[in-house]
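re the bet — no i am not wrong, look at it urself. input seq straight from the record:
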Amino acid sequence: MPVILSGGSGTRLWPMSRPERPKQFLPLTAAETMLQLTAARAHGDAFAAPIVVANASHADEVETQLSTLDAAPQAIILEPAGRNTAPAIALAALATDGKAPLLVMPSDHVIRDRDAFHAAIHAALPLVEQGWLVTFGITPDAPETGYGYIKVGEEVAAGVHRVARFVEKPQRDVAEAMIATGDHVWNGGIFLFCADAYLNALDQFRPDILAAARASMAQARHDGVRLYPDATAFEASPSDSIDYAVMEKAEQVAVVPVAMGWSDVGSWDALHQIADNDTHGNVVNGDAIVLDSRNCLVRSDGARIAMVGVEDLIVVASGNDILILPRGRSQDVKLLQEEMKRR
């Protein structure tokens, strides 16, 4: 059963991505939105209808976007407050049959090779049915410092390895060394496990989170496919990620290394890297005129952008806001937002 986590705020893709309409609701890489592509990726005979866990303020957006697909959700669980991934996944696990395998996915990632993704899922299922918690490790193609890593241990089934250890986002020299060894993969934040195995692990390592999730679901309000956990009970939960709360502590944790054309689309630079470029390396969307320019990303949802004779720029216009920065500096969007808040 797919569980789609759609609680992110997408601040790194400002000005188009905003708290009221973060990047998972935007058509960044195709005509469909990131959320729609994620739902379609886990659809078909082998998959049940998905459960979506989202911010309560996005209820209409989630339901509207997924109503256009064959993969309409069986439930939309609406968090009254953000408490990170461990509590969010607990809500989904409590809403299902305890034996159901849950495929937990962020709503805003790109996976271009769906067949490779599905093959990795099938490789993991036999261990999942034995109670293992499985994550999918992305075969790295560069010493990225913006991702966590997983050290791949001994093989425990065909294509599936025990997790030797999780590694925090490293410095560049550490990332280069890990890539050189050939036994590290990126932590892509995609998981597969049975609902009861996850809840049992949470009960062992973070019973406070499980207790808050149980209480909030016991008092939940239902409205069609929408499910509203009790706000007071859920807000009492500590905020923690599944990695810290469970995956780094549990005993039976495995990783499936897979090359599947993955990207978290975590910045405008990342979008430029995966998008289709023209013959001059430009990625242009919206009303824009780009002449004698190279290796630029230009995007507008309204204002006309005109550029001549420039290279390696990111220019994004949305509403009254315009972002301009050199390629390679898009992670500094967070600095701009901090300065705007300060002012």
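see?? The chain has two domains: 2-126+190-251, 268-342. told u. also The mean pLDDT is 94. so pay up
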